[in-house]
User: Fold this.
Amino acid sequence: MSIEKQVDPSRRGLLVATAAAGGVVGLGTAGTLVSTFQPSERAKAAGAPVEVDITTLQPGEMRTVEWRGKPVWILKRTPEMVASLKKTDAEVADPDSARNPDEFTPEYCINEHRSIKPEILVAVGICTHLGCSPSTKFTPGPQPSLPDNWEGGFLCPCHGSTFDMAGRVFKNKPAPDNLVVPRHMYLGDNKIVIGKDEKGEA
Assistant:
């Protein structure tokens, strides 16, 4: 013969409340455990490398992608754009990208065109003066806010700094340095990884 233990009705509510509270604590703990597997804010801020397929990028066309919260330009320069760099050598402040190369130009891009492939420029689209984003001014010739012998490049709308088709800053402008070329590499002929190269992630 079994004997059932009666629960005092006045205490039944207490048991339900205790069980519910335990469930909430359990869920809270589970949430904490799950959150430890999520990327940290620091990791998110650092940003993972970005792969970009440039198969459809046409000569004279520029694509902008985001990496670490910054706009990164990928420009497929025409032969004329590449040739213009010889003409601007004497007019830019740092033609050989010699200033702070660790910060502005990877060693494999320290050349006249500041790129791995002469026709493809990869640059962070942020002016080195106060962080504005320059506008594209690819058409050569006289234009408002540009010299009469303009060969094409970029104009910062905030304070008038100008950059040539390799992102090299012209002399006597507010921007102190060339545009940043991020570390990058090619995966085949038409895929670029921004933020990573043979040495690892940036």
